[in-house]
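Researcher: We are triaging several targets before committing to wet-lab work. For this one, the compound of interest is adenosine monophosphate. I'm pasting the protein sequence and the ligand SMILES. What I need is the predicted three-dimensional arrangement of the protein with the ligand bound, expressed as structure tokens, so it can go straight into our comparison scripts without reformatting.
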Amino acid sequence: MSRVLVIADHDGHQLGSGCSRCVTAAAKLGAAELHVAVFAAAGGAIAAQAAELAGVSKVLVVERAENAHLLAAVLAPQVVKLAAGYDYVIGPANTFGKDLLPRVAALLGVGQVSDLMFVESAHRFRRPTYAGNAIVTIESPPEVKLVATIRTASFAAAGGGGSAPIEAASTDAVLPTHTRFVSINAAKSDRPELQSAKRVVSGGRALANSENFQLIYALADRLGAAVGASRAAVDAGYVPSDMQVGQTGKIIAPELYMAIGISGAIQHLTGIKDARTIVAINKDAEAPIFEVADVGLVGDLFKIVPELTALLSKASG
Amino acid sequence: MKILVGIKRVVDYNVRVRVKPDGSGVALDGVKMSINPFDEIALEEALRIRERNQATEVIVVAVGPEEVQTQLRSALAMGADRAILVKCDQPIEPQGVARALLAVIRQEQIGLAILGKQAIDDDAGQTGQMLAALWERPQVTFASKLELQAEKAQVTREVDSGLETLSIDLPAVITTDLRLNEPRYIKLPDIMKAKKKPLAVTDLAALGVNAMPQFRVVKTEPPVPRARGIMVKDVPELVAELRKRGVVS
Ligand SMILES: Cc1cc2nc3c(=O)[nH]c(=O)nc-3n(C[C@H](O)[C@H](O)[C@H](O)COP(=O)(O)OP(=O)(O)OC[C@H]3O[C@@H](n4cnc5c(N)ncnc54)[C@H](O)[C@@H]3O)c2cc1C
Ligand SMILES: Nc1ncnc2c1ncn2[C@@H]1O[C@H](COP(=O)(O)O)[C@@H](O)[C@H]1O
């Protein structure tokens, strides 16, 4: 009977979308005790959201002024103290978990499974390598505490309706002062969050400038979709970097993914392989994106996208 | 200040990797190998710091078999001052690499270590954070902007919600994101010059590093392919198809 500690991602107010995916993964690990740890300056509201996730047996809240911003160097020693007595310490494979968990693993003197995508048994897992082109099955010795980041696109969100007890926890960890938060420049958007959105519309280099990206936004808004982009579009400055989808951007698994003016480089495809339906619009019939698309349309996006947005508006209006 | 840059030899990013039919790994025979793209970015950043006279020396370090010398020579041609190969013929996990790099850092009195945010073969994304933990120093992962001041650095990192800026004390570990810079091209005369630059070879035992892997790789498989899709001829057909699949109303 194993004990699993999930480190919650959050923005200071809201529980992140990664946590509930980790709770599902924890259940697959055979958690008899499934605890979620919330590190924050004031974590009550976040803890309450975690307590509602089905399957969670307890929520631990570690409140300290130093936890106002989730700095890996500051959190890691606290996680290590809390980790005593757990068989697994896991967190989401988003920028929060990817930053923190390897630091935790090293302090614990153990290795880490990155992007855990499938649990075969308590100590046998699958994870992607080579941008998802080679899936490896690995075994970890049962006597070693397992630290892992969870590939959120591979696990469904946990259900709600739970009412786990919430406990204040504290650690005597000595915290470093060598790392200080300065600022965050977070793009505020009313659109759904890219990582958890049911529908995503992405644009590529073909959009040619940021004004033209309005076509993508308009279609996305019509569909209630989040907006993503290829690396080429981000590098060219058409959109901010947090919109990049792919091996080195966000890995997503929406029900609908529309790739518009994106060629379908291997690094991009890694990020969308788990999407239920992939739609590709590209003027080049030979573009590799059509090899993975469920529905493809060859043509000029500057003609197709406005027509598509209009047709969808008409239907729902 | 001396800067250490981690260099990993990986299958070139343009190669379409193939899994061996017996499940024992990916086919590497005759495949083009290169410096991990994020490590080129790391090296470029280190060179720029040295060119601004904020560092005295850029040392590139690779942990791996003899063949890695090829990539270390490329790194020297790009502009690194000297190279260290830590020989290791067995598979090594990020934690082992981090221990080896730390041993070099202690020997060389390094002030800043710059690594890639991930190696594009194992896609682990662990080594920099593990190194910072073992070294008990700050880490800034996914860096897209780096400004050095005396004994300090201000670093901007790409996070899921946008751009975060941290201030850290040196020594520290930085891991690079794609937009930190664009690496320079190597010119022919530089390749000649690089042949004369020092490349020292040591090994894990000499550094006193134990790097036993924790994980056993049971098998390697290609991903489950997606079913072949259909092509539609125009927008009304596209909308009809999406409705049929129930993905739009
Ligand atoms: C280490 C590394 C990591 C990377 N990580 C990522 C990643 O995470 N995500 C990512 O996306 N990329 C990543 N890349 C980059 C990737 O290799 C490609 O360069 C990138 O995805 C290309 O973007 P694109 O498809 O928008 O541009 P292009 O490849 O230039 O494709 C543009 C497409 O638009 C089509 N087009 C042009 N005009 C029109 C029109 N009017 N109407 C319709 N179609 C049109 C063209 O036919 C073409 O297919 C990475 C690369 C490296 C080396
Ligand atoms: N064998 C190695 N030798 C030198 N540096 C390495 C090695 N493995 C990883 N690194 C560094 O660590 C970074 C992240 O690698 P990884 O944690 O394997 O994804 C790489 O971009 C390199 O900078």
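Researcher: Any quick observations?
Model: The domain at 2-221 of chain B is CATH 3.40.50.620 (Rossmann fold).
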